[in-house]
Amino acid sequence: MATKDYGKTLNLPQTEFPMRANLPQREGEYLKYWQDIDLYHEILKQNADKPKFILHDGPPYANGNIHLGHVLNKVLKDMVCKFKSMDGYNAPYVPGWDTHGLPIEQKAIKELGINRHQVSKNEFRDKCKEFALGFVDTQREQFKRVGVRADWDHPYVTLLPEYEAEQVKAFGEMCKKGYVYKGLKPVYWCMECETALAEAEIEYADHTSPSIYVKFPVKDGKGIVPEDAYFVIWTTTPWTIPANVGICLNESFTYCLAEIAGSKLVVAKDLLEQFAKAIEAEDYQVLAEYQGKDLERIVCSHPLFDRDSLVILGDHVTLEAGTGCVHTAPGHGVDDFMVGKKYDLPVIAPVDDKGCFTEEAGPFAGLKTITDGNKAVLAALTEAGVLLKTEHIRHQYPHCWRCKHPIIFRATEQWFASIDGFREKALEEIDKVKFIPAWGHDRIYNMVRDRGDWCISRQRSWGVPIPIFYCEKCGKDIINDATIEKTAKLFGEYGSNIWYEKEADELVPEGFVCPECGHNHFRKEMDIMDVWFDSGSSSFSVLEQRPELQVPADLYLEGSDQHRGWFNSSLSISTAVRGYAPYRQVLTHGFLVDEKGRKMSKSLGNFVDPLETIEQMGADVLRLWVASADYRNDLAVSPGIMKQVGEAYRKIRNTMRFLIGNTYDYDNKTNRVAYNDLMEIDRLAEHKLQQLIEKVLEAYRNYEFHVVYHAIHKFCVVDMSASYLDIVKDRLYVECADDVKRRSAQTVMYDILQVLLRLMTPILAFTSEEIYSFLPKDADAPKSVQMLSMPQVKEDYKDDTLAAKWDTIFAVKEKVAKELEAARTAKTIGHSLDAAVTIYCDDDIYDICASLGDYLPYVLIVSQARLRKLKDMPHGMVAEDGVAVGVEAAAGIKCTRCWIYSETVGENAAHPELCHRCATVMEKLDK
User: Fold this and answer.
1) What is the rounded distance in angstroms from the CA atom of residue 847 to the CA atom of residue 857?
2) Which residue from 76, 113, 359, 707 has the highest number of Cβ atoms inside 10 Å of its Cβ?
3) 114, pLDDT greater than 90
4) Above 60 in pLDDT, residue 1?
């Protein structure tokens, strides 16, 4: 007689939700769907009456394809906005692009083959604009592909006329308040980019420099120092010697005149021994000692030029290195400039925009300063017999963070913003801001506290012109309400190119005359604003102008380098003009490194291309990686790490598929089992679900996305797949479809599915939408999963007493599993259902396990389970933590339907291959 196929009578999972994600192909379908339904604006309409949450986007440069750092930044922002919109907020997200400045110029010159010196300014600017807007479009599509939800059709772009107009107004307000001035000061100067730089554009890197000791002959010792003596300076920038006009001492140091190597040399007493070793002098004799203050205004001769070098005093002189006599060139150093100003020293800076010596440098004219210039100066010092020692040292030296080349200090006339004018207010505002991580407060606070004046002018073409006029007659620089209003209006109508298309007299207000002398002809400033002024003005140009936004923003979120960049410039401009910070919270993330902690680099071969990763694994895997890493530190990434994240994604997906497949015939309106009628383990699952909701919501609200990831992953893999779902499979599959025990499990699984779906939506944007498309929905259901609300904790579903009881049960289950594995290894059993277990335990554990009654074997996933008191444990067994477990082959015959061994198999004549439970189910099904 043929065996009946009882497998067809089981309630096996049913779903078309695929096991294989096939994300690279399927994600495109959901991108199109979101676009077709205009999801961004649908959500804004839905949340229009809710309180606003504004995350203001820091604009990336539109100068290339996106990289993994872009993905990290934009996905973090997207997770914030998606969560906030599901958590009761109206959270518009307006993306932006920085489209001016050197990054655009450099890429345009390189990729378009432009020589900016051979084309007109407007032609060059048009090419840069075309290049930048091309990459705005490119990056926009790439960010969309990552699943970022934003107002992509209406981004803010810093080159747009309306943006430039508001930027000019902000600049005008700073001028009106007296914060902007023009001055001759040493500034960071990039010879490669041919422009001044601000502190925010400097980074330090290793550089090899010549380290030299030079003696300056005394010309007038004022009766204190003999005139056959020398003051010795030490420097690592020989090329600045032609600009020397002074030697700076510290008034409180003791200096000595020492006979060394046949010369009388003046150095700091505390550095004398170190100096003698450095120049390899075998011995020396101290001839006299002086206090630094007594040597003030002694006159030395410049060793190469017919010029005096005055001995002066300054607090910046230290005993850390050198001789205590500091070579002073006010044209090439901030400290030198400040102390030189005190002594009315001339500011000599014989260097042009390209870093080459000018005619003022005499025999060195035309040479590149820090290369050939250094060598030539050293040769001249040697020939003059004043070079005591040369060696080369490797040290940290400032570099341009754009082109990565070393920079110099160079005194030029520049426009500056006086930080002193609003420094205290800025520091007060910093104290009101919440920084995430908290150390961000001290970092930006210290930067603002110690920051020098901001050099805001640049000698380039691609940017917003500084809207200042000069009187042709008296030379007065002019900026006032009338000129700013006219310039802002022109820029708003035509864009800033009009500044270069029109003559100055056509740009000033009609009938305008010089307020100083009454003259009516003008010239215009040709420098542009620092690009950080562009992006730093976004609170005026974007937050104040877009009706859906507001200022201050609730959150700025960027990489940790922006404490000196966008966070800083935005704070400076907003505080100077409006008197408050443009943000309430500032969140910073780290940078990308490989598994070994090395910075990602194409040359090292450890570079991960996000576009390739999307094509291979899908954007949701990238998004899950962003969520998985603790962004507060540097983030490790590699193909191996991505593979691990892909495996985690698979486990989460399979859990969701199991939940979908086993609720295929469940209707929450008609099949739901009341909480108090749920089976105990189902109530436990509800308890754990509430704990998950509580933990994940708190983590989202604290921007701790890695906590969200780990909580969801653990819940799916440990609490669900390896525990609860494994246990409830039996009654899901075996009981009658509408049996209350099965509906009890389905009720909880429905809740888990709905909760997990919502909790994962901000992270797994595509997968959650895919899952949502497979769920039954009412006619008035939202069009997208992103329009659902976050789940709320049901306090009455939390039961700590129940959880504690089941902690004990699961501890016993773990010991049983250990013994089952040992029995499997010994070939006593195969599957766990082949086993019968006897559990010997102390009274408390016995009572807890006994309360499960006949359900204990199902929890342990064995065919039979017997409970015994610990005192009845056979001789030779060893108890651990009050529990001992014995394993043997299960009694009875294996039921062909449920696979559980039972002594009741064969009792039912109609179904002789089934156990009593399955036979009873079949009788109900046969009716």
Assistant:
1) 16
2) 76
3) no
4) no
The answer to whether the beta carbons of residues 337 and 185 sit under 8 Å apart is yes
Rounded-to-integer distance, Cα 199 and Cα 895, Å: 78
CB atoms within 10 A of CB 289: 11
Average pLDDT over residues 306-328: 90
Which of helix, strand or coil describes residue 145? helix
The residues, any chain, with a CB within 8 Å of residue 251's CB and separated by 6 or more, are 291, 292, 293, 296, 313
Q: What is the pLDDT of residues 609-630, one digit of tens each?
A: 899 999 999 999 999 999 999 9
State how far the Cα of 379 lies from the Cα of 386, in Å rounded to an integer.
11
The tokens for 403 are 């082109």
CA distance 82 to 182: 46
**Phi/psi at 889 (5° precision):** -65, 140
Burial of 583 (0-12, 13-18, 19+ CB in 10 A): buried
Alpha-carbon torsion 753, 758, 764, 768, what sign?
Answer: positive
Q: Quick one: CA torsion of 597, 598, 599, 600, rounded to 10 degrees? A: -100
d(CA 656, CA 15): 11
CA distance 409 to 411: 7
C-alpha to C-alpha distance for 357 and 238, rounded to whole angstroms: 13
DSSP 881-927: TTEEEEEEEPSSEE-TTT--EETTTT--SSSTTS-HHHHHHHHHHH-
Query: Chain-centre distance of CA 738, in angstroms?
Result: 51
Q: Which residue has the tokens 């507001």?
A: 550
* C-alpha–C-alpha distance, residues 561 and 558, integer Å: 8
d(CA 100, CA 676): 64
Distance CA 886, CA 294 (A): 95
Q: Is 630 helix (H, G, I), strand (E, B) or coil?
A: coil
Q: Which residues pair with 190 in a beta bridge?
A: 195
Q: What is the CA radius of gyration of the chain?
A: 38
Diameter of the chain measured on Cα atoms? 129
Q: Tell me if 505 sits within 8 A of 486, measured CB to CB.
A: no
Please provide the DSSP assignment of 651-684 as one string: HHHHHHHHHHHTTTT--TTTSPPPGGGS-HHHHH
How far is 744 from 728, CA to CA, in rounded Å?
A: 10
pLDDT tens-digit readout, 556-612: 999 998 998 999 999 999 999 999 999 999 999 998 887 777 777 665 666 788 999
Contacting residues for 485 by C-beta, under 8 A, at least 6 apart:
509
Which neighbouring-strand residues pair with 861? none
| Count of Cβ atoms closer than 10 Å to residue 775 Cβ | 15
Peptide bond into 582 cis (omega under 30): no
> With b meaning 16 or more CB within 10 Å and e meaning fewer, what string describes 514-545?
beeeeeeebebbebbbbbbbbbbbbbbbbbeb
Nearest to 61 by CA among 398, 353, 397, 401: 401
For residue 832, pLDDT beyond 60 = yes
